[in-house]
Amino acid sequence: MVIKMPIITKQGLPANKILREEKIQILEELEGENYENLIQVAILNLMPLKEDTELQLLRKLATSGQSIKVTFFNVISYISKNTDPEHLGRFYSTFDEIKEKKFDGLIITGAPVEQMKFEDVIYWNELTKIMEWSKTAVKSTLYICWGAQAGLYYHYGIDKELMDRKKFGVFNHHILKRDSKLLNQLQEGFKAPHSRHTTIEKSDIEKHHELSIISESDEAGVFIVENETANQIFITGHLEYAVDTLDKEYKRDLSKGLSIEIPKNYYQHDNPNELPMHSWKENGDKVYSNWVNFYLAK
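-> structure tokens emitted (298 positions)
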């Protein structure tokens, strides 16, 4: 039996109410309180719908059974168009405000800029400073989707490749490195969602002896890459996604008149008029719990 321990967040964060309704233990940060004895996780949230991502990641971190102090922060070289500035000002720190601190974990999310060259992304210079800082200030950094591509490019010079069509849906994955603690208790063929236009070539990663591909998919390609010291983990998909996230993305693109295929292996009977299946939930829970317990726990 896992003993539930609280996640500590900023007072008034909208996700807190939802999480409490889901019976997840949330405590709100008290001014002057010392939380240094807890696991410290910083989250650089680059996703456009920041509140959705906050909720998704807090749900996953809560599966670990550990007490975790979470600090959200954002880049200042780009102003989000989809999140209220008041929300960012109240619940987010800047990099300058946290760069003198040490963290057990750092999560760098995906971002809707994957078809751009890295150097053309408006906040690229700021992001590279954060990634460089993470090498000495963070015990283990988890890079997600475009974040994973950005991390592999910055740290190892591995560029992304544009695909003919968007990789969109839920796919089966092989376990290539059974002794990786990140995949503890996962079964061969486990499912995970992907939503991206670009990919990383397996052959490019294999040129770097310090990197290991620990999971891949026949359909979606390279999935999880670890470096030899386990302080950098790159996940090309979205194990944190809620059950309705792909549905929202699909219907958003349809409403914009964009060419978008039905996400694979997602809706019951592959019918978008039926309910989506949350076939990856337990897999995401396990990966995030493993990351916290095996890579971050003090």
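The mean pLDDT is 95.
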